[in-house]
Amino acid sequence: MVATSLLAAEALHRAGIAYLHLAEADWDDAPLVPRDYRQALRKRFPGTIIVAGRYTPERGEALIEQGLADLVTFGRPFLANPDLPRRIAEGLPLNTPDPKTFFGGGAAGYDDYPVYGVAAR
Q: Most buried by CB count within 10 Å: which residue of 24, 81, 87, 95?
């Protein structure tokens, strides 16, 4: 499977695909993607690589600095922090997401997390 994914990445690069988006396992005890795989992927796909899955700003920044990713996405942290870019840039604390509200059932959890420094509605 690893060899196949690397061959696919190489073929996608040759075809001119705009980017690869790696949706990594994001449960609490999920294994991390090995560094040697990331390096092999970068060799075969020099274009834009986007990563997602249980990333912290620090972990994402480290991958970008190492040249192993170009962009990092934040799903759950963004759900709970409508001002996530500001919080990351200023080192502000993050709201804790409520997983019970992630996939519907009502409006709760989609637009009611507080913005830092603004009183809750």
A: 81
